[in-house]
Each structure stands twice: as C-alpha cells, then as structure tokens.
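User: quick one, fold this
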Amino acid sequence: MHILYLSTFITLLYNIFIYIVSTVLPLAAIFNKKIKLFIEGRKNTFSILEKTLNKTEKTIWMHCASLGEFEQGRPIVELIKKEFPTKKIVVTFFSPSGFEIRKNYNLADVVCYLPIDTKRNVEKFVKLVNPELAIFVKYEFWPILLQELHRKKIKTILISGIFRENQVFFKWYGFWMRNYLKAFSHFFVQNNKSKQLLERINFKNVTVSGDTRFDRVFEITTQDNTLPFIAEFKNNCHTLVAGSTWKEDEKLLIAYINEKATENEKFIIAPHNMNSKDIMELKLAISKKTILFSEKEGNPLKDYQVFIVDTIGILTKIYSYATIAYVGGGFTKSGVHNVLEPATFGIPIIIGPNYAKFEEVKNLIAINACYSVHDSENLSVLLTKLASDIKNRNEAGLKAYNYIKSNIGASQEILKYIKK
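Assistant:
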C-alpha cells in the first residue's frame, strides 16, 4: 500500500515537473533556435493529425527520439508498408534534429512531433492517431503516454531496445517507472544483457533480435550510391571521409592535413554542425587546396585536396568512396556517431575515445575493424600506417563488412511478431 501511495506521489511530481517545463520552454525558445523548433513544431501536431487521418481508421504508429532512432525503425516501416500497403503509418519525433530531416518521409502518411507528455495531450494524441500498433524505437519511455496505451490495451512493442544497469528501472527507487513498462506487449532487444535485466524485474516477454540498424545499413549497399562529383574529386586517390565531425575532431584532422598529408591523400569532411560561420572557419584553417560542396559547380574538383560537405543527406553515399572513414563525436559527451554506415562499405573506421555506450563500436574495436584515437599524434601515426599498409587496411575493412552482414535479420523477426 505504501508503494502505491509513493508511486502516486511520484507521478504527481512528474506531472508538476512536466507542467513547469512546458511553461518555461517557450521563454527559453527566445534564446535557442533548437528549442524554438521544438515548441513551434508541436503547435501543428494536432491540426496535422486531424486533417490527415480518418477518426474511424486505425493506424500503425512509430515513435523515434531523433534521426538515429528513425534509421533503426525505418526497416520496420518499409516491411510493414510492403506487407500491409493500405495501412496508414504515423511517425513521430521528439527531437527537431530528427523531424527536420525526415519530415517529408514518403512512406509515412503523417510525420509530426510527439506532444509533451501531459494527460490532456496524450489522450488527444492517442484518440487522433488511433493506433492498432505502437512501435517505440530503442528507448523513449514517457510515463503518461505508456499509461494511456496500457489503459486502452493497444499493442505496443519496443524494437532495437537496449537496457543498462544504471537505468532507473533497475534501481530500488525505480518501481514507479517499472510499472509503466507493463504497457509493452513485447520487447525486442539488442543483446542478452538487456534481456537479463528485464527478466530480473519480472518481464519475460523479451526476444533478443539484435539491432535493426544492421538491416538498414546493409540495404544501403544494394542501392545506387553514385555521386559523380565525388568520383571526380577523389580521382582514384586514397581518400579519408570524415563524417559528422565536431570541432574537437576537426582540430585533429586539420593538424594531420596541414602537417602530415601527402599529395596522394584526399580528404572529405562532412561536419555535424552546418553553421556557415563554422564551415568557413574550418575551410580557412586548412592550408591545403580546399573547396566546399556549395562551390563545386564549374570548378575542376580533381585539383583540390580537401572537400567540405556543407549540405545534408549525402554522407552515406560519400562513405562508399572512402578508403578510410573517420566518424566524429568521440570527443563529445554524447559520444561517437553512426559507425555502421561506413562499416557496411567494408572500410576501416577511426573514432575518438568516447564510445563506451555503443556496443557495435566496442565489437568493431574488438575485431580490429575500428580504431580509437586520443590525440592528434595518435591519429597521425594511425593515418600514416593505414595509408601505406594496404593489406592491413583491406583486412580491417573486410572484418567491418562481415560484422555487418553477420548481424542482419532483426527486422524480419519483428515483422513475424507484428503479423500475428
């Protein structure tokens, strides 16, 4: 009984917290562009749903935190669309960085923001979407939303889930959040550790299916990845593609390019931040002949040594031209970005030191397909070695490709459950 009262009290505190946040955010939006998108985008959610969906028609709804989770869920949406072509599909995002890039995703009937987790918002949202199936990708556990899905007995699954010992569910005080996990009809998790943790708190409806991202990135290799301007720039030279780089990554790369790079090496840098001021600072910091994507028209690209990609949406294709990939983010608190996209093209990968949260990175490092560097000297030694040692480079790339290929199949296993 005490636990029930305490759980009710914590839920009340959560509701108060959400109310305060939703009140303060519009003020913060004045000073922060991302928060402004977060607030402004959500103003249209209900009107979009009302205009697009038929109230009597059930949908399949997938929720993603951001772009990375969308890429994990995408193979499932594609399979569902093939299997049930007439079903309406709704995709929601929490983060503007995911929504802004995928708001025109053609396989979804609606792409919108998930409303803030208040009782009023949740009830209205679930009523409008009217899902027969709710799919959550990897994480995003919103208590009020899960409570409503459970109350209405809506089939709800988690895909590519990953759980860690330090999450609230597995702490002594996490009983109130554990209760909301009852909304899930089934958990499809990435590894055995996640399954063991869930079983420890009495959830047996768990399947270790792996990560659906492997299906997504492996499929990329079957698509047309041709970019004639990149082929022209590369000009059959040894090429390092640095994707999703932050300033910390770029500092190391600049040092190598300016001080160590030979004339036979080429570099393509696709920064994480598309701010024009930062892009120009990056260009000016490089002493070798450098050109931006936005400057490519009419220029002899083969004459340049560095190509900076000041646009979005083409990095995956660019990786197909790499002989080595550098994936950024490993010097930031959030950690390294997606290493699976370059790995699927069979190339060795270099990253920064912060990768502890990413199982796929640890696995690639363990098989010598990925290398972590800590400073510019470390990077310089490694790049020099990989540039000259073709045999070692090819072996590392093959290990990366085989790792991807050996982990595909999660999407089909999830589809079998959905079809039941």
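User: anything notable?
Assistant: The first strand starts at residue 59 and ends at 64.
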